[in-house]
Amino acid sequence: MRLFLEIARTGFAALCLHPLRSGVTICVVMSILVPYLAGVGLSHGIRDVAEDSLRFGADLTVTGLRFGRTVPIPLSAVDAIRRIEGVTEVVPRIVGALSLGKNREPAVLVGLPHGRLPKDVKWVQGQFSDSSTLNEFVVGSQLASRLSLEVGSIIPPFYRSAKGERLSKVVGVLAPDAPLWQANLMLTSLETAAQVFDQPDQVTCLLVSCRAGYADQIKTAILRTAAPDSTQGAIRYRVASRRELESLLPSGWLHREGIFNLHFVLGFAVAILAVLVTSGAGLSERRREIGILKATGWQTDEILLRGLVESLLLCCAAASGSVVVAFVWLKWLNGLWIASVFLNGVDAVPGFEIPFRLVPVPVLLAFLISAIVVLSGTLYPTWRAAIVPPRDAMR
Amino acid sequence: MTVLLETQNVTKIHRPGTRAEVRALDDVSLCVEVGSCVAFTGPSGSGKTTLLALLGALERPSHGQVLFQGRDLRSDSDAELTRIRRKMGFIFQDFALIPSLAVWENITYPLIPRGMSTVERLKLAQSLLGELGLPDKTYERPYELSGGEQQRVSIARALAGRPEVILADEPTSNLDDAAAVELIAVLKKTHAAGTTLILSSHDPRVLAIAETVHRLKSGRLVATDR
Fold first, then answer.
1. How far is B179 from chain A (nearest CA, A)?
2. I need a labelling partner for B204 at 20 to 30 A (CA). Which of A157, A178, A372, B23 fits?
3. ipTM above 0.90?
4. Are the Cβ atoms of A299 and B79 closer than 8 angstroms?
5. Please, what sign has the CA dihedral across residues A67, A70, A74, A76?
6. pLDDT in tens, A84-117
7. What domains sit in chain B, N to C, each tagged with a CATH number?
8. Residue pLDDT, tens place only, A65-93
């Protein structure tokens, strides 16, 4: 055992004796593992936020369909659905896309009934007024940052509707540490949203809350009905339960993660080549050293043990370093650049606190990948040098 | 006298079957007795280094036999050859020191697989360096030493394992006169202590300490002077 430890110690010493070789190998491995860990950690964080949003959302989400395409629902449908047995609440909502400012910054406008607007939640700086005042907005942190908006800012007319153009007022800014969906959000009353999109008495969806155990029955009842539309015939409903929406999440994230993983596999292949080149650059020195060791009485397995310890220490250093750097990247650098890979419309420097979660499986995978890269890059050349006659290795 | 090492019709061909094939040794037979001092000489390319490598089990012959203490090394595994090398000490023409290791580590690195502790190794290295006149070079790196000093470190490494035989390949070729004289004195002293010496050299001062000088030419043994 003492002999084993003594030989293992020489592996550790070898790591320190060749600082350039060790440093380059660690850097190459980290250059692929850090983006991988940061990307996967970010992906998990975003998925958590999405799942939380669904968990605390409505039991059923109702949208309108015409010719198989999504269309607005008349506001009068709210009362019809509210009368279905088991329905506890129906909240009409308008969600629409628009762009603001001379750079046409993309924003998501969400309109909710006045009573449903957040009055004073911890992540909103400012608040809606108590009375139903048109053209008051709470804006997301990234949007506020891009458009230099703050509480009290006046937004010049940015839409055209039948009722004319109006100035708008920012009454609140969402805090950067609020959930990520707020980044490009413009939250306002249902009436204001309807006016912005010039769609009076229309909403994009209805959020239905049900008594426990009634969701399926209510869904069936809603699907049997059709929304009255005085101008263009009836509108059919599409109803998605919370469970159905949850089941849609993984496919979306798996697609994005799949693209990310494909890039990672390419990076992985390049890293192995890079480590082989790094080892190759010092190969003659390593071969000669191994030749000297063999000539002076070191057995092949003892040389391999020394190389194995050196490689394992290198891979552990690279993988541990990667975990630390990935954490720093996500926590303190706030996913600089990489957040924009996963989140559409997010700047390279996100204007809000990005969600992330480093989970054990990718971390363990990082150690495994590191081991594969380092062992194939360093232990293999060591083995090749150790099996030739010492005189050949020393040449 | 007991025979320590013996070659029987040994031939060594480098890169066999290619256009670059070289017959480095051709049908060489000789024996080295325990406690003797044997030297090989001859022009460059005559096969001295190759013969030394075969006697030191650093490579295998293409044909013929090499026997160590009567044992034929032909059929020995790589591990068994390594065990045999542990009974030998090597002094290489280019010193073959590991540049990243301190002098004391270079001297005693071969003893790590033999189970010697770090403290014992350091003590042994300091003792050998004292005997060889380098007591203050323990923690220096080989590249900080002169050629003569590096060769003495190489000798200390060869002596550290208490070998039965020391094989020295052109030990004075990279040294100045003064260093060569010092080295020859050390070799004499080592031989006087009962260690078998096998040397290869052009240097008449080295050949002078040998009891037997084998002359090689184009890989063949052409003469033996006793």
1. 24
2. B23
3. yes
4. yes
5. positive
6. 999 999 999 999 999 888 888 888 999 988 877 6
7. 1-87+168-173+199-226 (3.40.50.300)
8. 888 889 999 988 899 899 999 999 999 99
